[in-house]
Design brief:
This protein is 51% helix and 20% strand. It is α+β, with helices and mostly antiparallel strands and 412 residues long. A five-stranded antiparallel beta sheet has the order 2-1-5-4-3. Strands 7-9-10-12-11 form a five-stranded mixed beta sheet, with helices on one face. Strands 6-8 form a two-stranded antiparallel ribbon.
């Protein structure tokens, strides 16, 4: 074979080998790059190419390291913002508007709603249909009252004020609902208004009645039985009338004085004690009334060693009042229960099978002076509410049906 053709053959083989090497190398590069992209797309960064005699592998490993650092920084930032949102007093819930799936909820939201977890916004229907409807509603309205929602969680009645906004996240429409518990604020404002009203009433009534009482007593003393031109019959009528005025005035002063107690509840002197010991004292102090009415009183501790840091005498006063109210409602069975919920809130519940409280009475029962009893003063539950407020707690009517009426005392 001529030398010319041998050279051409060698060159052809060399070119073909180079082309094949480039094709093979290009295939390997594409395979490695595709592998890395697939892994990163799946969120996997725990891979590494051998860097021996390969600049490409070094470059790919470097890119992977950059992605890993960025992902770690994002996770740390998410963790920081999560901790930040868990420490605010505003509940925040984010959910997918199409499926209702919860994409985020902070711990404050779960605490206000009384839930251990929230997976779907439809769960709120278990608590209250109106609450679920308020969350699902497209946007807030101009009327502030319509942005409020009231409901009962596992321990008490709550009132929240909501604010809503919408966003597009990863191709999904989500709704962000932030809400605050305004129960305490409403109750505080209500009680302050009641206190001001009572102070005004007692001041005006006492200023009017006190001189009447004094004058009546004085006039009675002036009516001596002898040396008087009045006939015995007229004297007797006058004396009886003035005696009636004096007696009525004294009764009215005593009546007004009882309402002064609403504005003079002593600050609690707190101590640590077991709730079971307090329950035993309630049973002892109400035993006579229970025996005369044929009612029974029991206590159950649903959590181990439930302890309170409170004014024992004031809490005792509340529980005795609830037991007496149950007896007056013709209850045959009265139960007290104590437990600690998932938020470390201590709850005492007093239930009875007496006559249910009417819907009208339920709205007014904590209002001072309101009573459905013929000889009631209407201050027992009002004072109880004030005592619980001073303990940073709350007393509420959990439910009242023909089967059972339950009052709940909540200690935060």
């Amino acid at each position: 074979m001529p030398l010319k053709w041998i050279v051409i053959l060698i060159v052809g083989v060399a070119v073909l080998s180079a082309v094949l090497a480039v094709i093979v190398s290009s295939y390997r590069v594409r395979r490695k790059v595709n592998y890395m992209l697939d892994a990163l797309e799946d969120g996997e960064t725990n891979f590494r190419f051998s860097e021996r005699k390969s600049r490409l592998n070094k470059t790919l490993n470097r890119l992977n390291g950059i992605f890993k650092q960025e992902r770690l920084a994002i996770r740390e930032q998410e963790k920081f913002f999560g901790i930040l949102l868990d420490n605010v007093k505003t509940g925040i819930v984010v959910f997918d508007t199409s499926s209702g799936a919860i994409t985020y909820s902070n711990s404050r939201a779960l605490q206000i709603l009384g839930l251990a977890s929230l997976v779907n916004i439809k769960q709120l229907r278990i608590i209250d249909n109106n609450l679920a409807a308020a969350f699902i509603a497209e946007k807030e309205v101009s009327d502030p009252e319509k942005n409020k929602a009231s409901f009962y969680n596992e321990s008490s009645q709550k009132t929240i004020v909501m604010s809503k906004s919408s966003a597009l996240v990863q191709g999904r429409n989500v709704r962000i609902v932030s809400f605050n518990d305004v129960t305490e604020e409403l109750e505080t404002n209500q009680e302050e208004a009641y206190s001001k009203l009572i102070r005004v009433l007692t001041h005006e009534i006492m200023n009017t009645v006190t001189p009447i009482s004094s004058l009546s007593d004085a006039l009675v003393s002036y009516l001596e039985p002898e040396g008087d031109e009045l006939t015995q019959e007229r004297r007797k009528a006058l004396r009886d009338g003035l005696d009636t005025i004096a007696s009525s005035s004294r009764s009215l002063i005593q009546f007004v004085e009882s309402y002064r107690n609403l504005t003079r509840v002593a600050p609690p002197v707190k101590s640590v004690f077991y709730v079971r010991d307090l329950a035993s004292e309630v049973m002892e102090l109400t035993s006579e009334q229970l025996a005369s009415s044929g009612a029974s009183l029991s206590f159950a501790e649903r959590s181990d060693d439930v302890i309170l840091f409170a004014d024992r005498g004031q809490i005792l006063q509340i529980l005795i009042n609830l037991v007496k109210n149950a007896v007056q409602a013709k209850a045959r069975t009265i139960n007290m229960e104590a437990r600690i919920d998932s938020s470390d809130v201590t709850i005492i519940e007093v239930s009875n099978d007496g006559e249910p409280i009417t819907p009208e009475a339920q709205k007014q029962m904590f209002v001072p002076f309101y009573t459905t009893k013929q000889d009631g003063s209407g201050i027992g539950l009002a004072i109880s509410s004030q005592i619980m407020r001073m303990h940073n707690g709350q007393i509420s009517l959990k439910s009242s049906t023909a089967e059972k009426t339950t009052f709940s005392l909540l200690f935060r």
